[in-house]
Amino acid sequence: MAVETRPVTATLPVGGENVVRRASDLIGATPLLELVRTGSGSRLLLKLEQFNPTGSAKVRMAREMVLAAERNGDLAPGGHIVEPTSGNTGTGLALIALERGYAFTAVVDGHAATDKLRAMRALGAQLVTVDGDGSDGPSSVRRRQIAAEIAAATGAYRPDQHNNPYNNAGYRELAGELHKDLATDIDYLVGAVGTGGSLCGTVEELRRLGSRVYAIGVEPVGSIIFGGEPGAYWQTGAGSPADFPVGGNVHYDLIDEDCRVGDIDAFATARVVARRTGVLIGGTAGAAVHVALRRLVRLPPGSTVVVLVCDAGEKYLDTVYDEDWLTARGLYDRAAQQRIVRLCRAYDESVRLAALDLRRQGA
Ligand SMILES: Cc1ncc(COP(=O)(O)O)c(C=O)c1O
Questions:
Q1: Using a 6 Å cutoff on CB, does residue 88 contact ligand 1?
Q2: What whole-number distance in Å separates Cα of residue 249 and Cα of residue 164?
Q3: What is the pTM of this model?
Q4: Which of 284, 290, 315, 319 has the most ligand 1 atoms within 8 A of CB, as the residue to mutate?
Q5: How far apart are the CA of 16 and the centre of ligand 1, in A?
Q6: Residue 203 in contact with residue 252, Cβ under 8 Å?
Q7: Of the residues 110, 139, 229, 289, which has the maximum number of CB atoms within 10 A of its CB?
Q8: Ligand 1 centroid, distance to 18 Cα (angstroms)
């Protein structure tokens, strides 16, 4: 069959072109996806931060910290950046460093997702790997020590994401996007907490914009940010191990409530979200969604809940989304997945029943 051809020029835009010249210009304007709604008109929305370049929210703060360091004279042309990272901050810093002509050294440990390490290397970062302490947890203290030593020996700039105020400031735009994209106030914002930057930075700016949002911080069971019992966990990026001092960017006064979610529920929820929506979310986002899903039933009618999805599940195909990996660690639990599936179905059913009710009343 003959294929109809049209002159190419017919499809070119008439006005200005929509082309960026740097990958970092693609940061932001990430989409909101409705995961579930209830018969009482409440909604659970996912702010999909994996749509940023480097596939995570953290590139927002990486850029903010580097630009601030340039303004403050901490970074000069041809400079060197060193930072301990579980991977997402590192990938963000690697991108900003390559665009702006800096060398970047990431101090990592065996707890990091392999694909994050590969991504940093692909963007030209040098990786320094510290030995684990024999536990399944991250070696945050050791990573920080080595990064400090490298900075002292080489004069490299260390952003210190746990205490750098430009980490939190990097999420002002995210708050602005939520404010702009929703026709209503956000009643609940749920986010996994590591440095605290994404949740606290977003909440602070939302409230400055007039929101009355209630903020829920989520950490892995075993993390000590909100005073829980220390222990091992496999969620990466969020949480803080026993011996790691919580940094100044966790503003406890901005967080209304804290929750702990174990790896089994976090990963089961991420896997159910994948099957329901076709979007793969990371394990810490799974934890935050878990909290939001369970909370939704108890909220006043018409509530809007937003979960900050820090990163993409594609970074965890060989862990969270690998049944063998989960099974080997005792983290594969069909019943946990079924509980989430049933919860989502109950919400779907409540929408159906509410619609039936409306129709009956109208009849
Ligand atoms: C996957 C993941 N989730 C959650 C977080 C926590 O974000 P924040 O450090 O802004 O608290 C991070 C931080 O690196 C992360 O990488």
A1: yes
A2: 7
A3: 0.94
A4: 284
A5: 36
A6: no
A7: 289
A8: 31
pLDDT of 9 above 50? no
Which residue type does 320 have? V
Name the residue at shortest CA distance from atom 4 of ligand 1: 238
- Average pLDDT, whole number, for the chain? 94
192 Cα to the center of ligand 1, angstroms: 6
State the closest ligand 1 atom to the C-alpha of 167, by its place in the atom list counted from 1. 10
Say how far apart CA 125 and CA 119 lie, in whole Å.
9
pLDDT of the residue at 1 = 53
CA of 256 to the centre of ligand 1 (A): 19
Q: Please list the residues that pair with 194 across neighbouring strands.
A: none
Which amino acid belongs to residue 251?
H
Distance separating alpha carbons of residues 81 and 137, to the nearest angstrom: 25
60 in contact with ligand 1, CB cutoff 6 A: no
With a 6 Å cutoff on the Cβ, whether 198 touches ligand 1 is yes
Compute, in degrees rounded to 10, the torsion defined by CA atoms 246, 247, 251, 257. Answer: -20
Q: Distance from the CA of 193 to the center of ligand 1, in angstroms? A: 6
Cβ(121)–Cβ(109) below 8 Å = no
Name the residue type at position 68. Answer: A
From the centroid of its chain, how far is CA 10?
Answer: 41
Among 311, 276, 273, residue whose Cα is nearest residue 292? 273
Classify strands 188-192 and 126-130 as parallel, antiparallel or unpaired.
unpaired
The one-letter code for the residue type at 65 is: M
- Give tens-digit pLDDT for 22-33: 999 999 999 999
